[in-house]
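Structural prep section.
Before we set up the soaks we want a predicted structure of the protein with magnesium ion in place, mainly to decide which crystallisation condition to try first. Input record follows.
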Amino acid sequence: MKFYNRERELNYLKTYVQLEPNSILFVYGPKSSGKTTVILRVIEELSKRDDLIFFYYDLREYATPTKEEFLKIFFEKGDKKYLLNKLEINLGVFKFGVEENINFNNLSLNDVFTKMKESIKEVIKDGKKPILIIDELQKLKNIYFNGGKSLLNELFNLFIHLTKVRHLCHVICLTSDTLFIEEIYRNSTLKNASEYYLIDWLEKKTIKEILKEEGFNEDEINYCLNYLSLPYEISQLINNKKLGLSVKETIKQWINIEKDGLMFLIANMPDELDENKIYEILNKFRDKIKVEDYEIIKRELIKEFKFLVENEILFYDVVNGIIKPTSIIEWHAINEIIERA
Ligand SMILES: Nc1ncnc2c1ncn2[C@@H]1O[C@H](COP(=O)(O)OP(=O)(O)OP(=O)(O)O)[C@@H](O)[C@H]1O
Ligand SMILES: [Mg+2]
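Run finished without errors. Recording the tokens verbatim:
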């Protein structure tokens, strides 16, 4: 699979993991903007170095992990305090080590955190730098340990200890759930202990360069620039071209798919939501692609707004106070719908 230019993001993250840990980093961005791809690239490029130890966990593939699954994902049984993840050999990432005879069912949250800390300290003792990366962190939201303790809340305390307090280990959390980032952003425990990094749409300049390199002609490129924003759109456009579909045909199809999706979503939305309010929100995007959050986030629109964000029609960048469609294609779909309404 080809990797398209994410120079700035790669440089930022590669530099970040080599600085002294000082806060938790949350990587966020519109759906499919390439967050996972960029972080995997960082790991790929840096895990060859033997002074950096990546603990990387991707929760995407788990529906909603249970406590036992969480433990199996994060820990590996063996005689070492940290062990190569056998399922990710090519990436060269590690898991926290636990003794062979351990019974996951009997572990308390304190035991779990002690084991994580032991692993991290062992890495440091070996003269290396540990980096913990969790993709789709929000999946741990509904796991509770004995005594009803929320795993995620307690993990945040551990992460603050590891970063801001003791500077032992980098903690990078990725999420595609924008409302989750909003919760985190307003979480008082995390204030002054967290940083945010946006992986956004590709820049026009980058898209132009990639399309040129891929052999698209000037007319095609100029047409595409009004519609493309996500990396996978470019790969798909290239494939479709090989399959005999013109740029215009492909883009028209994409807009139609999104438009149908949005129409069905509105037609099937829960009764407690008001269709007029949905249109009121969508109408704000009539002649602009970005809207300041205060224009939409009002008491009377909040339910409808959250519905549009949860269903990945809109992306809410809480850090910059901006709301926009999840892609430029989505923006065109929205505009077709409001024109007809
Ligand atoms: N820089 C890139 N070059 C080429 N392809 C890319 C690039 N970034 C992302 N892609 C492709 O785009 C698709 C989505 O990427 P990815 O899963 O990394 O996005 P994401 O932001 O993590 O998405 P989600 O919000 O669903 O978690 C994948 O098919 C991936 O291969
Ligand atoms: Mg992802």
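Observations: The chain has a mean pLDDT of 94.
Flagged for discussion at group meeting.
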